[in-house]
Amino acid sequence: MIRNTLNSVVQKKFFLMFFTSVIYIAGLFAYFADNAVITAFIIMTLGIFAIAKNYLSPKLILFWYFVFFFAFFNASLRVKNSDALYQIAPQNALIEGQIVLIHQKINEKTKFFFNVSKINYNGEEKNVTAKTLVTLNNPQCDLNIGDFLSINGKLRTPFEASNPSQFDYGKYLKNFDIFTVFYANEYKPLNIKLSFKWNFLQGLNNLRNNIIQAHAKYLKSPNLELLGGVVFGDDAVSTPEEIKTSFKNSGLLHLLAASGMNVALIYGIWFFLLRKLKVPFNITVSSGIFIVIFYAMMTGLGPSVIRAAFMLIFILVGKLIDRDTHSISLLSFVALLMLIYNPAYINDVGFQLSFLVTFGLLLTGPIIFENIKSMPNWLSGAIFVPIIAQIWVAPIQMYYFNSFSLYSVFANILVLPFVTIISFGGFTGAVLAIIKPLADSVCFVFDLILNPVLNITVAISNYFSNLPHSLIQMLQPSLLQIFLYYGIVLLITLILKIGKNKGLIITLSSLCLLLSISWIKFPDKSFETIIFDVQNADAFLIKTPKNKYFLIDSGKIGYKGGKTQAKAIVLEYLKDNGIKNIEGLIITHFDSDHAGGAIDLIENLNIKNIYVNSLNDKSTLAKKIYLKGKNKVKQAKNNEIIYQEGKLIIKNFTANLHGQEFENENSIITLISDGNFDELFMGDAGIVAFDKLKNYLPNDIEILKIGHHGAKNVVNKEFLDRINPEIAIVSTGINNYGHPNGVTLNILEQHKVKILRTDRQNAIKINEEAGQYKIYTYNKNWELIKNDKIF
Fold it and tell me: Of 333, 370, 409, 586, which sits most exposed with the smallest number of CB within 10 A?
């Protein structure tokens, strides 16, 4: 049966193209995941097995093996790991070059990709060929794609993930061949003549901006953002966070960015209208190609639009020369071309989602529609297209975003007719508005028509967004679980195609059972501590043997309205691991590098108790915490046991010293004891607090979290003689305070205390069970660190 099925599949050329693309993607996966040997061995084993069983021909296996290695070596040749600017950073520098893409405009900040041709630093001038991401803090700037600029600022390397579940900004930028970031407040235009290419793109961008400005006279937020996203791309109009949240919760976030769906809708309506007007087929198709190209340019050429445009153009060209064009084969071919050109596209989430949706619709859609012929085509399409799309993208959404929109299918079904009107109406209006004298009048008329439609679409989003459990937080699935899921979906599709088959039913049942078992979490009875790398701040997660969780501090407040470290690091880790309930949050004191993310934690977690060192703090941050925490907020008491679980005890201490100068010394100090294993967290307290509390502390501890990021006067000989720590943890990063202080480090070294620092080791994990403990540091994965490797 297997031999006959494979022979039947292989004889269909479109499946050959599909499997060739899959093998190529496997080669890219081997390169980016850094597991070429394992992946090559698996493919070779499967190939030998297929040849031995006479399932596939040796020539085909050898060809696919060649494709695999071609993908790997093409990626190694095309994907760079550094450039000239990366070798120079960090520096204060003057750079010259050209804007190649306006990446983002938010409030007073403008971010853009910048091709650098010259750099001046330390009095030295160099010609370079490199690209950087510039963040310009200048509300008065009026920049356009193609502009040549001279910019004075700071050249830095982007942050890379130093914590589990943290977004890796450095890795993200590498997909665009960018290895540095540049921060600046001022720039100077350079008078350099633009080439035809940049003149054209700049003119197109100006045209787009002028049309959006005309729409802005007659449309208000969020209607303007919705029309701008659908017609002009997600970089056209900055979308407020509350609007994004509404559309995200309802499962309609994709509407705020032009996508392949909009390409298909615009061409479909164009084709329908011209055929109704009895325009010759060749003229209809040719003009449709022009429409698709023009729309793609107006949206800023995003990956999903490029994919849809490429595929549709290939199909239309095939129709013009009277050749059959199989959609799956074309989709695979387009994917192959794009990934050969730029292997890093495989890491783009939008690229992955758009191809999966299209593949799912092309593969599963016809089979579903064949089984429901009694239903009108317009109705079956409106209902089942969103369902099929959601089925195919669900695990990828869960993997990247840890969430699932419960009402997404219903919301998408309801908005489809309105989005169709918005897409074609908005695009038609944009085309007519190109005629400058008519632009204002055209926008007025079309906005008058589209405004009610936009209102209905926004109302649908808000309705589903406000329903209970609209967005469900999910565990991050593993790659194995994702493969099992898609295996199940493919088998169900095959069963719907050929009917019930005993072998397929058994295989399907086995995969469902494996997927179910893979979600079972077996009890972890270890005591675990995670020291997050939050730079010169504190944030710790404690897990007890009975899987109860405590948080100590919450990292820094967001920079200039940006994300707090709690939101960017701590909450991402908790979401990935399905942790929602927190037994206790200990806020050692109200400095922004300790309590800065507390509000985000309180808003996003079920926290039972919140312990603070004072209920009378007058700072703005403290008042917000009191207000949000309500009756959960408690003042910590000295020598108070706040939790007990068998031999494990969590106890708080407070020095309660009087005077503003003792603000740090009044931090809550927390002792966690599990039998013969002790951890002491000092907050920002040091030797003054120790002197008052030393009679309460144990004689020997294993782990000491040094106070105040290793500043001066946080330890002395008496302190270390008394508690005799084996390992000292210093939570620190780049700062202007000289943390950790050299004197403090010398005292620790003289006492032969081993030191671990988050600015060197990244996040740190300590696992203890039955008095034995192991320490791990984070570098893409947790790595066990041996005692002789600790400084």
Answer: 370
